[in-house]
Each structure stands twice: as C-alpha cells, then as structure tokens.
Amino acid sequence: MKPRRSNQRNQAMTLTEVFVVIVVLAVLAAMFFPALLPPKRISSHVSCITNLKEIGLAFEMWAGDHNDKYPMEISVANGGTMELAATGDVIATFQIISNELSTPKILFCPADTIHTITNFFGVNFTAKNISYFVGLDADTNRSKVFFSGDDNFAVGGIPVKSGLLKLPTNAPVTWTAARHKFTGFIVLADGSARHTDDKLLVQELIETGVATNRLAIP
To answer: Tens of pLDDT along 153-190?
Structure first.
C-alpha cells in the first residue's frame, strides 16, 4: 500500500500573522526589558525617602546617648558640632553620627548627578559624597524643624551653593529640576519624611516655627 499523502501544503505566513507575531514580541519586550534597564525615578524616590528616614533615626539614636541633644546643639569642646555646623560644614555632623549611620552610602541620593557615592567614612569622605543638607535648628522640642533633606534648592530662582543657607519663612525657595523634577524630600525632627513640591516646601518651612531656618548645604 502506498503511503497516504496529505492534501495540505506548507504555506508561508501571511502579513497579518507576521504583524501578530511582532505585536506579541513587542508586548513581551515591554514586560521583561525594564528589569534590565537603570532604576526609574520611582526607585530613586523610594531610596531617597528611605535614606532620610535612616538619617533621622541616626540623629535620634545619637541624641539618646547625649542627653537628648543633637550634634548641632553641642559645642565641639563637648563632643558636638555646633560651631562647625554654624559655618555650613555638613561633613563633621555626619561623621560624628557615622556609627549610627553605619555606611555613608545612606548620604547619597540615587537621583543625584553632582555628588558621588562612597563606601567609607574617613579622610577621603568629603561634601562631594553627601546629597543632603543638615538642619541646624532641630531640637527635641521642635518636632517640625528640618533634620535633613535634598539640597537642590533655589532661592529667587538661583540654585544655592555649599555653605550656610538662611531661610526666613517668607523666602522665595523652590526645588530645582536637578534631582526629582522640581520636587524634593525632607525629614523632620519628628522622624517623618516628606515628598514635597514647591508649595508644600514653603508650607513646611512656615510650620517649623522658626523665624529663620538654618541649613548646612554640602
């Protein structure tokens, strides 16, 4: 008996079938390729707010061992950073709470394109490794005063420079686009971290209860 032959013939894919395959591949690429790409802005937001919460906790832990006083409230002669912080020096304050921070990587915002991350505190640790300001007016009686936060401020449209920044409550302060697209993060003395736009930043500044807020900018 002769083998049976199929009456069907192999046919090339139609244009419609090719189009369907391309669409399916595009959908699969959209689903899986993002995992291979650099972290998106939402990831930097999560990292930044986590960093600031850890910074706030480090300040609280340090104060718990120093009569409820933060480094910025204690003179250098007594083991604090008061005089240094008052000049706008952020390095000394973060170094003195380095045991509570455990790693300087916490001081770097992933969205920061100006500063650089480092793994070690020490002689090579500089302001170039710090993305966040230090609030000099924090104390245990002012829960809304700024502890720390992103340093990409502008006052009157001019980006601030390293050093001591004095912000009265009516200061025309805004966020620049340099980090979080005209927004920023701050952590208050009560330990709460906030994501703020320009309007919320001004409101938070007023609610500190301090006539002029002093910030040390790295």
So the answer is: 999 999 999 999 999 999 999 999 989 989 999 999 99
Q: Is the pLDDT of residue 215 over 80?
A: yes
Largest CA distance in the chain: 108
Is the residue at 11 inside a domain? no
Token code pair at residue 201: 């930043």
Question: Residue 96 CA to chain centroid, in angstroms?
Answer: 20
66: its two tokens: 């120093």
Residue 134 counted as domain residue: yes
Cα separation, 18 vs 111, whole angstroms: 41
- Structural domain count of the chain: 1
* pLDDT value at residue 38: 46
pTM: predicted TM-score of the whole model, two decimal places: 0.79
Is residue 122 domain-resident?
yes
Residue whose entry in the numeric block shows the structure tokens 């230090």: 134
Which domain covers residue 53, as residue numbers? 41-217
Q: Give per-residue pLDDT as tens, 28-66.
A: 554 554 444 444 455 778 889 999 999 999 999 999 999
| Cα torsion angle, 127, 129, 133, 136, sign | negative
